[in-house]
Design goal:
By secondary structure, this protein is α/β, with parallel strands linked by helices. It has helices spanning about 15-25, 35-45, 55-70, 85-90, 115, 135-145, 200-210, 215-220, 240-250, 250-270, 270-275, 300-310, 325-330, 340-345, 360-375; strands at about 50-55, 75-80, 95-100, 120-125, 150-155, 160-165, 165, 175-180, 190-195, 290-295, 335, 350.
Amino acid sequence: MRIQFNKPFIVGAELNNIARAVLVKGVTSGDGDFTRLCQAWLEDNLGCGKALLTHSCTAALEMAAILCGVGPGDEVIMPSFTFVSTANAFVLRGATPVFIDIRPDTLNIDEQLIPKAITERTKTIVPVHYAGIPCAMDEICDIALGKELLVVEDAAQALLSDYDDKKLGALGDLGCLSFHETKNIISGEGGALLINNDQFIERAEIIWQKGTNRKNFERGVVNKYTWVDIGSSFLPSEITAAFLYAQMNHAEEIITRRRYLCSLYIERLALLYNTGHICHPPIHNGNGHIFYVLTNTSDEKTKLLSHLNNNGINAVFHYVPLHSSPAGRKYGRVSGSMNVTDDISSRIIRLPIYYEMKEQDIDMVTEEIFSFYGTR
């Protein structure tokens, strides 16, 4: 491939931090100094009540599902146009995902469809901020408040994205972030649970520490720690946290660069937008995480994807909707029509974007798109 879809990168003191964790701090297991620095950074920069680093966003979602208290017979409302972890976390607790359609403008959950999907079994709403573009959180939180439901933000793609004067992930009762190598800020694998509802903080720390009251032991509240609740080893190693903290110190720089790359794509592809060959994503309040185009037909998408990959451009599709997947049909159910989800998923192409991408790389990608359409 001439242009990779994604490329992990080092931007500052990542390797030095890892060496410090091992040789100076002498700690490589979780919940050391670098873990606490990362958590403090999230609390300061996102305005959440409490942040706990996890080994993945999947782990953060699984913790959120436990904290929500969902179980067999309960229902959780979410979009079908999302990654499998959004649903898996709640299915593991025995709950049923209820899939609803997305908005064609943002590709986020359609908040106007949520009330019709609520039943006496509904416990939680899970908005997913696709491509770092915010869901309609005021409306969603108002619906949840009126029905006494919890809100878990899947903000895996939305680090430092704005919603009015707040950051995504800090608006619902709980928020979940990802630092996977495909995200803006990376640690290889990694994530975080943001706790915005104070009633969950103490239990979240217990679940995070394998179901023990170890944090209270460290604070001197108890004279020994023991098993007090369900939980698992959700925390990452200090090596992961050390790498991540270096990236956090350059977060604004990284996101500014990705936003700039998105603006270059829009500028270079303007003729194709203006002539109706393709559509581009909204760019307001985003964080440059994803740049996608929408073709006019499914067949056109398949042919354009093939053309790009055959010419060294690693573009990809996104996603197979959960409601149409084998596990989605087995464990979940649909509320209402899924027309927008089915349509968008059949026409979307994600283009390469990563921190070290150069302008000439954008030129190569866009030239191949123009070549496909036979237009200059």
